[in-house]
Predict the structure.
Amino acid sequence: MRKLLFITLLAISAFAQAGKFGSFTNSDDVGASVLKGAADFDSSTGNYKVTGSGTDIWGKSDQFHYVWREMSGNFAVSAKAKFLTDGLTHRKAVIMLRKSLEPDSPFIHLAIHADGTPAVQFRNTKADNTNTVDFPVEGPGVWRLKLVRQNTTITVWIAKGNEPLRELGHTSTQLGSPVLVGLGVSSHSQAATNTVLFSDVSVEQLQTPAPTRR
Amino acid sequence: MRQILFFCLLSTSAFSQSGMPGVFSSARDVGSPALKGSAEFSEGQYRVTGAGANIWAKQDQFQFVWREMSGNFTVTATMRFLGQGAEHRKAGIMVRQSLDTDATYADVVIHGNGMPGLQWRSKPGEDTNAFDFPFDGPGTFTIKLVRTGVRIFMYMAKSGNQLKEIAHTEVSFQNPVLVGLAVCSHQADASDTVIFSDVSVEAEAPLKPKSP
């Protein structure tokens, strides 16, 4: 039984590394927007074009397109995000951790809104309201986003253009393991889609330190 | 031009004749800390002593100096901890729905080690949410909390630097709310004292006289 489990784990791991979506394994619309989303991975450049519709990732439930893989333990995810299409001010591109694909699932993400408002947003329990920490608006551009999970601590960094990454701060999460880790795009409207180019995407498993201190 | 704002700036000496001097009306421990807290107002400064396990998780223990307010407002204060204490002792400006230990609240705090935080409990009895910002050590901090509708903005400056907008969150309160200064030692068997100076409370609508 133990041997069988081991083989299964190996298989999942191999799939994750050579998946259809590079660092990720799947691509799905979360929530039911009128317009369908899509994800296109270019294995020669490592770039993702993610097209998402949906009212928002906000309130008690979400609508967006998600490119994801399952992960446990500690990890670091970073990506550059560039909005390729015009749209609403608060369309958003995110690095997300999510419990499930249900629209009202607990989640936490680092978001960049199209107007250059960085935000850390999270839903603590299923169907609960979304919490937000919005940072001052810095204007549109190409943004680098980085999110690290270590035990229950989530630390985030951002940089606009070619500026060096700067830490925004940290919060905590009870999402646990496994979680769905990935990139999300929401157009902030059911009547529109928006496409975001994610480049320099890195997903790194970090060593798991000692058990969480409470 | 609909948005003409009626600002009413209260100086810290304007109401020195009533119960709790200065811009606030009352001082009290919230959540029954093992050691009693206290608050004094003298020469334009608040000297607030608080104990308590924490302002965190599902319930709080701390000393609160407050007044009742409705609508939008801005509270500013310069603060420093006296003496030694726990790394995560905290003090700052709080908006609170009630004096219940598990009440809805939002606050802008500085921890004893200098770490700034924006904290909030969205509903009574829920876990506290927090976001902590990068920091370089303890000192004297000027902090500002602005309530605009559901939004709670945090501004901060260390050691006399220019106040800078840090971030905002969203918390739904019913009017009126309790607005004031909070001090918590982060340990049951110790108190901490914080000096708050240059305290101002500005309301968008004219303030009603303080309740006695």
Q: What stands out?
A: Chain B has one domain: 8-199. Residues 39 and 48 of chain B are 4 Å apart (CA to CA). Confidence is low (pLDDT under 50) at residues 1-18 of chain B. DSSP finds no helices and 17 strands in chain B.
